[in-house]
Amino acid sequence: MGKKMALGKDAMGIQKTMRFKDYLGDGIGQLPLNAVSCLVGQLTYFYTDKVGLAAAAVATMLVIAKIIDAFTDLIMGKIMDDVTFRDGKARPWFRIMAIPIAAIIVLLFTVPTKASRGVQSGYVLITNILCSAVIYTAIAIPYGAMIAMRTESSEERGKMGIYRAVFGYVVGMIISIGLIPITNLLGGTQAAWIKVAAVFSILSFISMVVLYRSSKETVAESRKEEDAESTEGPDKLAFAQSIKLLFQNKYWVIMLIANLLMNISYGLSTSGGTFYAKYILGNDNIVALLGAVGLIPTFAGFILVGPMTKKLGMAKTCLTGCIIGIVGCIYRVFTPYSLISCLVGGSMVTFANIPIMCLTSALVNNCVEYNDWKFGHKLVGMSNSASSFGSKIGSGIGGSLIGWILGACGFISGAAAAEQPSAVTAGIFTFSIYIPLALLIGMAILFKMYDLEKIYPQIVTELSERKKKAVK
Fold first, then answer.
1. Residue 329 lies in a domain
2. DSSP secondary structure letters along 99-161
3. What's the domain count of the chain?
4. 242 contact partners, CB below 8 Å, separation of at least 6
5. In 3D, which of 162, 293, 135, 145 has the Cα closest to residue 217?
6. Measured between alpha carbons, how far is 233 from 255 in angstroms, rounded to an integer?
7. Residues of the chain with pLDDT under 50
């Protein structure tokens, strides 16, 4: 108890529970998740340029996998709320999924090259479903819920989001900067991609082991006694009733839609950069330059997001980021062929993404306390999984939009820029500039509407008083 009290309270008067090593141990869990999401983001390019599958067919298979993935998120959230292992509710999944996530990272790229197109398509669909709908989901939902289970402090939840984003962005930038040049250096073949995937596979396994050993369900432990006194338990609700309660939480609905828009944007950016570099700027190796320059606004964002959050709050910090990103997109609208414009405008969008990336998980998990305060049910797993439902649909739409747009423009797989129909250029501008601009405007409106932080201290205080009365 003495150690806990030595940590003090946050600016809202809520007890802190985390030290520096706790943030590090939690943050490393983002490495395998971002490794998978960033590699999946490159699959459209890999399947079309290295395997030779049609862009529209690839897009359809990827979106089918994402739709299935979105629904398994809901199932996983319900499982997590209802099932408790000996070592916790969320933490055990990190141990269970360590080997599967390492295996699937390699399997994504081992498409049988000598098989028929039908067999190849079936392999792509099955491996993507296993990756996204089963393995990734069984890690991401418990990992997201750990924010609510680890601390009630909004300040600490925000810091957890920042540390997670830093770790995740490191692996994301390594893939963004190095994947194409390294695979090209290794020969640019499918075998080169498999070798690189094997490295990320090993790193992901190690990260999952570290995450499991360092995780603690502090808040969950403190509430065991309270939950035990309830006949039904705090979250023993029917699946449909849980969903109904969530949709009565306006803040959760805001974050559901924000996550949807954010992940459409993320899916477009992770998959579209290589096409822009190759077919607009003339060299796919330029993607490494774009990624390297992107490190500058990334580091600036990570440095500034903490002070910005402390001064403005999480939602207003995200809103400020959106406004900066909107300005960057508008700049690119008028100078789409300019490398400088791509670097400067892209850097502004990158900076805009950092606060959103860091803070959305904390904003979602603050909705857990609102659920408890308003309805008497925390719904930790369902809050994270149903919100993730929007995220998965969004990333699926984002990645697939590229294939659909390219297919509609008559994109020729494996062809050089000079051999592509002129409509392909307009299509690349659409998914690289115009759609991201619209998405940032939508997110800005949503973050403007999110005012939960104004009443959050009151919510935590009242929940604490309820707990004391329940114990008496």
1. yes
2. HHHHHHHHHTT---TTS-HHHHHHHHHHHHIIIIIIIIHHHHHHHHHHHHHH---HHHHHHHH
3. 1
4. 78, 81, 235, 377, 379, 382
5. 145
6. 26
7. 1-5, 225-235
